[in-house]
Design goal:
Helix content is 42%, strand content 13%.
Length: 659
């Protein structure tokens, strides 16, 4: 084998092990074993462009096994993405560019944040779906302006996680032939041999999913891996390349579980370098290795220049499509929704899930790159875009996504759709099943991706389905996620506000929607974008009591206002669709809604009380759920659990009596 190639692979191995050793923390086993796979991909088969890393037609790379992050950081350094030797030395240190797991938006060249096993491969499925959809939309004869692959390295842990089963099953159904997954099959996990817990026939499973499977008996041979990648490119299916590797290759811990998640130790590291024939000082790379990497990146720059020339020709041949392409890839909406009266126009009471369905179709007519769907619940979630077609292997131009009953993968796939660029994704399920999606939703928030989550059947208002389907703790759980906007609208215009926030903001939005009809309020609308606002004001300048609620519980508060007036009590009603947005308003605005001088407050929400006390204080009260729901018509349940105007008024009187 060419010495420079051998040294290049050894450089990836040694830099990774040295970074882990200096940090005294990390996972050296995967980089030592998978370095030849990474080299075959990055140096010989992947189109990427370090000088212009956001080059749209680049191949995407996902390290789903994100614990092996030093593998990726070593690659980013060698191939010129701006990571320095000092950055590698600062692995896992505060404010470094090389955190413990790869972080999107933090380190140039990292396509997605990975670490929670299985999330990355599901992101990769979303990226491949985006490529397929955009190619079908924009490519024309002689103009393949969207034409790239999504590569993913995953390990045994990703294979075991249920999310990978869901995502890869859907990928096979959709025939995502531009998706190539390289399986680092080293048969070791933290507890030892995978044989203790994982004996399934993975190739058979993937063939059953509808994947092409290629077996590379010696994953340490970069030539064999490269040949498999090139063979995969000719398939009409997604491809799994099974690379049989040895964890911790070259080290005294090779093939052992101890190589997985702990530094080798100074002595073992020295032995590893000796076994690899690496006779250089720590964090030293010979110039011929850098030169070899530069050859690959030069090819990437040539590909970028060729694509730019193609786009110029495309612009001349298909000017309308070119303009549409540019609009799809802009973060700016193609319309001014805020001042679009028709967007905000509603004239009757409706379940907010139905209002959302109406808004989605208004958006579909105005925002052509909106794409999304449901976990086999579109008729209940009201998420179908009429006239936009169904995305499938046979019809990749369709914008309605059918995820099947796969909530775990659905949310992570939407992250991949957004990360790829060019699309505005949403997904939907019943609110109670957001538990299945929570990790991917958290990743949306961590990455700052404005994915819209449509979560219907939001409370005990689900009714007869009973406590298994009635969310209680879920609002508090989502509100606890930093950078997640939870938006529970009280009427149709607040729904429109939630969707507007989701499409124009820089964070994910969880739209939490009712099954039952809600009234339409005169003062609702764009005001809801402040997160909390006065929806029914008091007659006095300073009210006697303030009633706060979100969603369906605004209605009993408005009705309680009239009951309190009969008792000579002046109440203000505040709709609080989003804690997060309200908390971000300036102090003057917050005081105008919730003046400090009014300590008599009652908050009402058919969920756990956690979070409301910061608004009602020690003198206020919260009407909420203190246990699970029950199976009965929703009106019966609201009465049983105290979500009535009468109970709200009585609670307000009790609060006032304690003053």
């Amino acid at each position: 084998m060419n010495k420079t190639v051998v040294d290049s692979i050894s450089a990836i191995r040694v830099l990774s092990a040295e970074g882990v050793q200096k940090a005294n923390s990390g996972h050296p086993g995967l980089p030592l074993g998978a370095a030849p796979i990474a080299y075959a991909l990055w140096a010989e088969n992947m189109t990427h462009c370090p000088k212009n890393p956001a080059f749209f037609n680049r191949d995407r790379f996902v390290l789903s096994a994100g614990h092996g992050s030093m593998l990726l950081y070593s690659l980013l350094h060698l191939f010129g993405y701006g990571l320095t030797i000092e950055d590698l030395k600062n692995f896992r240190q505060l404010d470094s560019k090389t955190p413990g797991h790869p972080e999107y938006g933090h380190t140039v060249g990292v396509e997605t944040t990975t670490g929670p096993l299985g999330q990355g491969v599901a992101n990769a499925v979303g990226m491949a779906m985006a490529e397929k959809h955009l190619a079908a939309k924009f490519n024309r004869e002689g103009f393949n302006v969207v034409d790239h692959y999504t590569y993913c390295i995953l390990g045994d842990g990703c294979m075991m996680e249920g999310i990978s089963h869901e995502a890869c099953s859907l990928a096979g159904t959709l025939k995502l032939n531009k998706l190539i997954a390289l399986y680092d099959d080293n048969e070791i996990s933290i507890e030892g041999s995978t044989d203790i817990a994982f004996r399934e026939d993975v190739p058979a499973r993937f063939r059953a999913y509808g994947w092409n499977v290629i077996d590379v008996a010696d994953g340490n041979c970069h030539k064999n891996v490269g040949a498999a990648i090139r063979l995969a490119k000719g398939s009409d299916k997604p491809t799994l390349i099974v690379c049989h590797t040895q964890i911790g290759f070259g080290s005294p811990k090779a093939g052992k579980a101890s190589a997985h998640g702990e530094p080798l130790g100074d002595e073992a590291l020295a032995e590893t370098k000796k076994a690899l024939g690496w006779d250089y000082p720590p964090f030293t790379v010979p110039e011929d290795v850098y030169a070899r990497a530069a050859e690959a990146t030069a090819r990437g720059e040539e590909a970028r220049q060729a694509w730019l020339r193609l786009m110029d020709e495309y612009k001349a041949a298909h000017p309308d499509l070119y303009q549409e392409y540019q609009a799809w890839h802009s973060e700016e909406l193609p319309v001014d929704l805020l001042h679009d009266e028709a967007y905000w126009a509603f004239d009757k009471k409706a379940a907010t899930r139905n209002s959302s369905g109406e808004v989605i179709n208004r958006l579909a007519a105005r925002v052509p790159n909106l794409i999304g769907g449901s976990a086999d619940l579109a008729p209940s979630n009201k998420t179908e875009m009429k006239g936009r077609g169904d995305f499938s292997a046979e019809n990749p131009t369709g914008a309605n996504l059918h995820f099947g009953v796969r909530e775990h993968a659905m949310a992570a796939i939407c992250n991949g759709l957004k990360l790829h660029g060019g699309l505005r994704p949403y997904c939907a399920t019943f609110f109670v099943f957001s538990d299945y999606m929570k990790n991917a939703m958290r990743m949306s928030a961590l990455m700052g991706l404005n994915v819209v989550y449509v979560l219907t059947h939001d409370s005990i208002g689900v009714g007869e389905d009973g406590p298994t389907h009635q969310p209680i703790e879920h609002l508090a759980g989502l509100r606890a996620i930093p950078n997640m906007i939870v938006f529970r609208p009280a009427d149709s215009r607040e729904v429109a506000a939630g969707w507007y926030q989701g499409l124009t903001g820089d964070r994910p939005v969880s739209l939490v929607l009712t099954r039952q009809d809600l009234p339409l309020y005169e003062k609702s609308g764009p005001a809801a974008l402040k997160g909390g606002y006065i929806i029914a004001d008091s007659e006095k300048e300073t009210p006697d009591v303030i009633l706060l609620a979100s969603g369906s519980e605004v209605e009993p508060c408005v009705n309680a206002q009239a009951l309190l007036k009969e008792k000579g009590v002046d109440a203000r009603v505040v709709s609080m669709p989003s804690f997060e947005l309200f908390d971000e308003q300036d102090e003057a605005y917050k005081q105008s809604v919730l003046p400090d001088g009014v300590r008599a407050r009652v908050a009402v929400e058919a969920g756990a009380e956690l979070g409301w006390h910061k608004y009602v204080g020690l003198d206020g009260a919260v009407i909420c759920m203190h246990g699970f729901g029950a199976s009965a018509p929703y009106k019966t349940l609201f009465e049983k659990f105290g979500f009535t105007a009468e109970n709200v008024a009585a609670t307000a009187m009790n609060v006032l009596a304690k003053k």
